Amino acid sequence: MSLQEFQEKACQLSVSDRLALLSAIVQSLQTTPEIENWQYLIARPHPWRKQLYIKGHKLLASTIWRDMTANHMSSEQASENWDLPLDAIYEVIDYCENNQELLKLEAEEERYRLEVKGVQLEPTNAA
Fold first, then answer.
1. For residue 31, which phi and psi values (nearest 5 degrees)?
2. pLDDT at 31
């Protein structure tokens, strides 16, 4: 089964089944040994989030990567903006580009948890 076929089938599941599937995938990633030795990234204990953080900061690697993407920043600009060494930015890019599925799953999980709490994520049109 291709990834696209899997995604299409997953979208047909109920919300509770999708959450169970997501939890199972995240749990399987949790047991995957970390092969890379990162200089600037570190794992932190979290109930469901498994992506890496910037050492010494409560900052997800994906936050920097998404900021760079959304704002069309160069590595040098991101380094200056986040007050991090350029090598840390290179490490963030490498990590995030090679772990996009994990980042996507965690973003979906976060969205789901916010929706369950009643947080409105889509803008409302003012009449």
1. -85, -5
2. 57
